[in-house]
Write a structure and sequence with these properties.
The complex is a heterodimer of chains A (268) and B (253). Chain A is built from seven helices and seven strands. Chain B has 253 residues and is an alpha/beta fold. A seven-stranded parallel beta sheet of chain B has the order 3-2-1-4-5-6-7, sandwiched between helices. Chain B is globular and about 50 Å long. The chains are: A alpha/beta (268), B alpha/beta (253).
């Protein structure tokens, strides 16, 4: 047995929200390759069915469960379905979120409904899912909850309120869950992605910074999320909880000035 | 038993530093298990050689470099020896750390400058020496293993925590400076990790352990896979980060 064997996910049952597309899909692929069975929840049936077929093609169990993660009854039903079918849930990935709704209005034009949907989708959904499955994990004495936050959870974004506030909430509910659930053998961490061109980010008019404004000079590849998901789902990360796993090409390390800006100052 | 395909350091050469805590043999063994050849540098022949033995036990090549590494000439020479003996350098793991705890009013100038140099100064020298080769070849991964006191204070640890924060900030700036040269640099910040902790019941007699969300100490092998991740090309979008592996200590109020 070497240290790499801890990455094996054979027999682990994972539930992931928003797992049919983008970063979620690549996390599904990575975890399935490592041996996990994966239940994929999402709003649209087509993409989650395709993702489930991909998982089955790798020889793992999978199911696609159409779920609106802002609907608590639907969330509860999702976990009942998975527990009925598989008996156990070991890992929850709260990946569903929306980058932005329509347009990018100034603060004074944001409607109650727009605020509510943004917070519900980006923050409340993670709470609803964790609430629904944490008792099961606590009763077993083990479990892993992985949230997906954002650099906007640490820094402000221009005309970007619901996503920024929601992801900031995800950052800190991750810490609260870690501190609270550790005694039941449950860890809770967050992945913090930088800029990855995906269907979701391309589908909106949100202006992604060009690669040359990211310290390493390029945006990320969704497949760069597979190994991170595997590590956080596996026993290899058992001593980490309440932490932010930041994968952003160096964005949060800097941010004070454009990439490459470096004035020279000699000692006086 | 699937180990995911990404997790390989095949054809890579690493240089790891060793102190006397005994973590380096565990970490060097993990690098070798993932496929790397590993040079080990440090001032204690005993610990350097046991780390090298752990590498060869995994069927990989190793070389040892004994020294104090108190100037660029020595760290440059160690990098050169790694390249001449093992063919190249792709990975630098700064695993050496000098611990120090003392009331500040009793801390001498010599102690302050020694702690700062042994931790921050050495990390800077190693990164500079390895970074020269890595920026030339357009690729490389540097992993600094530090204490979470980089971010959290502790009584009697003003000098030590400053030396750790210095490494964290150096890491952020270097990630920007070398980002477009293909070099990645990150920190793993550890909480209370021990080579061989006693039983959990025994550990929990300590107040600090009961305070930790996970209510136990960690082991060096629990940072080994993260070190492999940060050493491999499959983590190339991760740079400038400090990842805390600490049983939840940082999440606590």
């Amino acid at each position: 047995m070497g240290v790499l064997d801890a990455l094996n996910l054979d027999g682990m049952n994972v539930v992931i929200t928003g797992g049919g597309t983008g970063l979620g899909l690549e996390m599904v692929r990575g975890m399935a390759e490592a041996g996990a069975n994966i239940a994929i929840a999402g709003r649209r049936q087509g993409p989650i069915d395709e993702a489930a077929d991909m998982v089955k093609g790798l020889g793992r169990k999978s199911m696609a469960v159409s779920t609106d993660v802002t609907d608590t009854a639907a969330v509860n039903a999702l976990f009942e379905t998975v527990l009925d079918e598989w008996g156990d849930v070991h890992v929850l990935f709260n990946n569903a979120g929306i980058v932005r709704e329509t347009g990018r209005p100034p603060l004074w034009e944001i409607t109650d409904e727009s605020w509510r949907i943004g917070i519900e989708t980006n923050l409340s959904s993670a709470f609803y899912c964790a609430r629904a499955i944490s008792k099961h994990m606590a009763d077993r004495g083990s479990g892993k909850i992985v949230n997906v936050a954002s650099g906007f959870g640490f820094r402000g974004g221009r005309d970007n309120y619901m996503y920024t506030a929601g992801k900031g909430g995800v950052v800190n509910i991750t810490r609260a869950m870690a501190v609270s659930l550790g005694r039941y053998g449950i860890t809770c961490n967050a992945i913090v992605p930088g800029f990855f061109p995906t269907e979701a980010t391309n589908a909106t008019s949100m202006s992604l910074p060009r690669g040359d404004l990211i310290p390493i000079g390029r945006t990320g590849f969704p497949r760069e999320f597979g190994p991170v998901a595997v590590w956080l789902a596996s026993a290899a990360s058992d001593y980490m909880t309440g932490e932010m796993f930041i994968v952003d090409g160096g964005g949060l390390a800097g941010g004070m000035a454009p990439t490459g800006y470096g004035p020279i100052t000699e000692l006086a | 038993m699937p180990v995911p395909n990404d997790w390989t350091l095949e054809d890579k050469v690493a240089l790891i530093t060793a102190d006397t805590r005994g973590w380096t043999p565990v970490l060097a063994s993990a690098l070798a298990e993932a496929g790397a050849d590993v040079a080990v540098a440090g001032n204690s022949a005993e610990y350097v050689e046991s780390a090298a033995a752990a590498v060869t036990a995994q069927g990989r090549r190793s070389t040892t470099i004994i020294g104090e590494f108190s100037g660029y000439a020595e760290t440059d020479a160690a990098v050169d020896k790694t390249v001449s003996e093992l063919g190249r350098i792709d990975i630098l793991v700064n695993a050496s750390l000098t611990e120090f705890g003392k009331p500040t009013l009793d801390t001498t100038e010599f102690e302050w400058s020694t702690v700062m140099d042994a931790n921050a100064g050495a990390a800077f020298r190693w990164a500079r020496s390895a970074g020269r080769k890595m920026t030339q070849q357009g690729s490389g991964h540097i992993v600094n293993i530090i204490s979470e006191m980089a971010e959290r204070g502790l009584t009697n640890h003003a000098a030590f925590s400053a030396s750790q924060a210095a490494i964290q900030q150096m890491t952020r700036s270097l990630s920007l400076e070398w980002g477009t040269s293909g070099v990645r640099i990150n920190c793993i910040a550890t909480g209370w990790i021990e080579l061989d902790p006693p039983s959990i019941e025994e550990q929990q007699k300590e107040l600090f352990v009961r305070y930790l969300p996970l209510r136990r100490k960690g082991t060096p092998s629990e940072i080994a896979t993260l070190m492999i991740y940060l050493s491999g090309d499959f983590s190339d979008f991760t740079t400038g980060q400090t990842i805390f592996v600490d049983g939840g200590a940082m999440a606590h109020a």
